Each structure stands twice: as structure tokens, then as C-alpha cells.
Amino acid sequence: MTLPPRAARHAWHGAINPLHATVYFSPDLGKEFESLGITDRVAVNLASRSAAMGAVAAGTVTSTFYNYRHDLIARHLPAVWDAATPGAVLAARLRAVDATLRRLLGDETLESAALAEAAELAMRATEGCTRHARTLYSAHADLPVPEEPHLKLWHATTLLREHRGDGHLVALLVADLDPVEALISHTATGRGMTPKYLKSIRGWDQSDLDAATDRLRGRGILDADGELTARGQEVREALELETDRLDAAPYEHLGAAGLARLAEIGGGFTKKAVAAGAFPGDLFGKA
User: Fold this and answer.
1) In terms of C-beta distances under 8 Å and separation of at least 24 residues, what long-range contacts does 253-259 make, across chains too?
2) Above 70 in pLDDT, residue 279?
């Protein structure tokens, strides 16, 4: 790699993924889906994330999402497609993205040269993405690129997010972390979702979380207090390094200067969105 160490990872965590994820916690998404007759919060989340793949059933989504409980997904899919087609869902999602970014960033920011520059940089990075074994990325890569700069930026961050995510699943399998173990060990780093959201968004019961915690203790990844051991820290860092390796191509294609600029501009947008209340205050952390 020719990029500085962890540069792509820092850009992804600081700018790319947060900008994409704003819509999942936005009241605008619920409003748009309510107009389609989809009112359950979990159904909204599952439909919005999976619609690019078409009217798929629960098994496909469980496989590509990795860390959602299958029972939760099967409760809503494929039934949600009786309420709205994937095309209608994708259109509603894009309307929600437009409303969300306008509310969080303001029209002046959306019309700025900096935002247009970020959109072009992010789209240039996507030219280095690959389709093979990248289910969610490949499905989204088939969607048309929006013309408006802020929607183009969101589309590009979606492609980059799913490209890294698809590779991350490969790394999780190599690390021998099952869906709940992956979530619990990530939470233990302090950067993952709190147990509250592992249950409400991912669908796991407390007994599932407790059993995974016990398995991780047995493997020497967590200590008696549920904190990462030295071995656990090594496992998580190796996992991220492998994900970095599998996701290097788009950022190598963009180049170090372009990546640094995207991180700078996008990071500023992220800070503004967070300050405007884009995410619940108790979303991330250990408790």
C-alpha cells in the first residue's frame, strides 16, 4: 500500500460511514416509509438497507447483514415487499436522505463548493471498488448516481461503506467470530453499539449476549469483567487490518492527497451532523 497506515480506516470511520448512516437514525426515514405503509422501525431499517438487492427473503438478508438475528429478519421479510416494491423503497430512502442532510447540514453547506468536491472525490474512490464477493456493494453499484451533489455524496459513501462491509464479513469469518461474538467484541472496544441497540436493532436477547460473552471469555478474548484482554485486542486489530487490506483498492485509486482531502471535508460534515443530533447519544459505548 502507498497510503499512510490506517489512513483509509480513519477516513471511513470519521467521514464516510457516519455520513451514510445519518439516514438510519433520521425521523425523515420513518415519515417517508409511513407513506408507503411501512411503520415498524425494524421493517424500515431492513427494507431500506436490502432494497437494492430486490425483493429478497430473510435468508439472503441474514447472510449479507451477518450480525442480525435471523428470527428478527424473518418477521419482516419478505412480507414487507407486499407493502411496497424495492423501487418505491429506494425512492423513499433517497427522499429521506435529501431531507436529512438538508436538516443536519443546511442548504448553504449542501450548495457549497466543498460538498461538491467531496462528492467528486468519493465517487472517484468508488472507481477502485470491485464486485466479486461483494453482494451489498454490487447491488448498490447498479443504482443510478444522483445528480445533486449531496445525494451523489451520500450514494458514494453508501458504495464505499458496503464495499468495506462486504470485505469485513470475510475477515470476521477468518477470525472465527460469529455474529454475536463480533458485536460483543466490538462493543468491548468502546466503538461499537451499546447492548441496548444490539437488542433493539439487531434483535438479540440478553441470553444471546451473555452466551457470546462466555464464549469469548473461554477463548481468552474477554476477561471476567467483559473487557478485551491483550489477546482480544490483538484479535480485533488483526480483524481491522485484514478489513483494511481487503478494502484498500478504492483509496489507493483515489490517492493519498485525495483521501486526505475527503477525510478533511467529510469529517467536517460529520462533526456538523453529529452536533445537529444525527445520532442517539447512547448509541456507542460499552454500557
Assistant:
1) 253/124, 253/125, 253/127, 253/128, 254/121, 254/124, 254/125, 254/128, 256/2, 256/3, 256/4, 256/7, 258/121, 258/124, 258/125, 259/3, 259/7, 259/8, 259/11, 259/125
2) yes
